[in-house]
């Protein structure tokens, strides 16, 4: 308890260019780790009103003292099938089965850990989090926060795939 | 050069992580590669390997797993003299210094690899661990 009381408060967090760069690097690092080319950023959206749609999403909470929010990694099924095929080599993916769920869960975990590492190296104190995976053809996941509290980043992968990363964070007293 | 005739075990609850690590180990030259999907399964396989004539030399261990996590598996193995010769390399997406220090110093893991990693990085870690293990057994 004493060590918690002596711990400095983490710095303010804004969804600015530094944050966006860290988020981009996290996704690129994770996807490259599968043996794929580095995904390319297509668009960064900070305005409310956009809608990200996909077929499978990894979701987890981002929590530290004074900040709470969510991170969502969304894929159309064709994209995740192609990404996983690079790892599984001889296996064809045709449906959103347990392997694809596990794959998205692991990717979400790696992206978050890379992002957390970068943020925590700047004084933040984001905690470990466990992903959940949502399946549903052409689903969308809406966050309910304001314009300056959320971003959505669209990536393109080799062979024309798409990945979306959404982060919504709000400060709390 | 690593002696790739060593038997190794991958313990991770995510199938993708196990497949990727198996691919890396195969590229390095290992062929006796087993998998476990949580700490309980891992401990059973470790104990069975010691009772067989072909115990695991290295166990690649994730930290966050259901039923029995990596730290608990490490602590259980460290408390059993029969399992003392097995070297553990933590393989995790987490790179928190406190967690790494705890795994290495308090629970006796030999090294730590952060996901995603490259084959050369993994190979260097394995070489170091197996060399140290052979040095201790002389």
How does this structure look, described?
The complex is a heterodimer of chains A (173) and B (138). Chain A has 173 residues and is an alpha+beta fold. Chain A is built from four helices and six strands; from the N terminus they run ααβββααβββ. A six-stranded antiparallel β-sheet of chain A has the order 1-5-6-3-2-4. In chain A, helix 2 (17-32) crosses helix 4. The radius of gyration of chain A is 16 Å and the shape is globular. The model of chain A is unreliable at 1-6 (pLDDT under 50). The longest helix of chain B is centred in the C-terminal third of the chain and has 19 residues, at 119-137. Chain B is of the alpha/beta class. In chain B, strand 3, helix 3 and strand 4 form a beta-alpha-beta unit. A five-stranded parallel β-sheet of chain B has the order 2-1-3-4-5, sandwiched between helices. Helices cover 47% and strands 18% of the residues of chain B. In chain B, helix 2 (39-51) runs parallel beside helix 3 (70-78). Classes of the chains: A alpha+beta (173), B alpha/beta (138). Chains A and B meet through helix 2, helix 3 and helix 4 of A and helix 1 of B.
Compact summary:
With about 170 residues, chain A is α+β, with helices and mostly antiparallel strands. Chain A contains four helices and six strands.
How large a portion of the residues of chain B is in β-strands, by DSSP E? 15-25%
Unreliable runs of chain B, pLDDT <50, ≥5 residues? Answer: none
* Number of DSSP-assigned strands of chain A: 6
The rounded Rg of chain A comes to: 16 Å
Q: What is the number of helices of chain B? A: 5
What's the overall average pLDDT of chain A, rounded?
Answer: 89
| Rg of chain B (C-alpha, Å) | 13 Å
Helix content of chain B: 40-55%
Brief descriptors of the model:
heterodimer, A: about 170 residues, alpha+beta, six-stranded antiparallel β-sheet, 4 helices, 6 strands, globular, disordered N terminus, B: about 140 residues, alpha/beta, five-stranded parallel β-sheet, 5 helices, 5 strands, about 20% strand
């Amino acid at each position: 308890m004493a060590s918690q009381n002596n711990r400095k408060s983490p710095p303010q967090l804004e969804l600015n260019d530094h944050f966006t760069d860290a988020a981009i690097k996290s996704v690129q690092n994770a996807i490259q780790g599968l043996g794929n080319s580095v995904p390319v950023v297509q668009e960064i959206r900070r305005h409310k009103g956009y809608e990200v749609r996909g077929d499978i999403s990894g979701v987890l909470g981002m929590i530290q003292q004074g900040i709470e929010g969510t991170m969502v990694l969304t894929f159309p099924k064709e994209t995740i099938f192609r990404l996983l095929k690079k790892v599984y080599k001889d296996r064809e993916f045709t449906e959103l089965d347990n392997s694809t769920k596990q794959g998205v869960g692991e990717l979400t975990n790696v992206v978050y850990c890379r992002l957390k590492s970068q943020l925590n190296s700047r004084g933040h104190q984001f905690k470990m989090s466990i992903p959940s995976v949502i399946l549903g053809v052409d689903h969308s996941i809406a966050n309910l926060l304001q314009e300056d509290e959320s971003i959505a980043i669209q990536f393109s992968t080799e062979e024309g795939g798409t990945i979306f990363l959404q982060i919504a964070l709000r400060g709390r007293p | 050069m690593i002696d790739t005739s060593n038997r190794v075990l991958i313990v991770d609850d995510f199938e993708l992580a196990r497949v990727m690590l198996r691919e890396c180990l195969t590229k390095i030259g290992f062929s006796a590669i087993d998998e476990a999907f949580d700490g309980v399964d891992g401990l059973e396989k470790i104990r069975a390997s010691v009772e067989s004539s072909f115990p695991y030399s290295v166990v690649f261990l994730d930290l966050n797993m259901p039923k029995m996590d990596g730290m608990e598996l490490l602590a259980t193995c460290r408390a059993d003299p029969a399992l003392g010769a097995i070297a553990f390399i933590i393989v995790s997406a987490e790179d928190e210094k406190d967690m790494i220090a705890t795994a290495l110093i308090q629970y006796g893991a030999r090294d730590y690899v952060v996901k995603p990693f490259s084959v050369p990085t993994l190979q260097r870690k394995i070489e170091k661990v197996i060399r140290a293990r052979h040095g201790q057994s002389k």
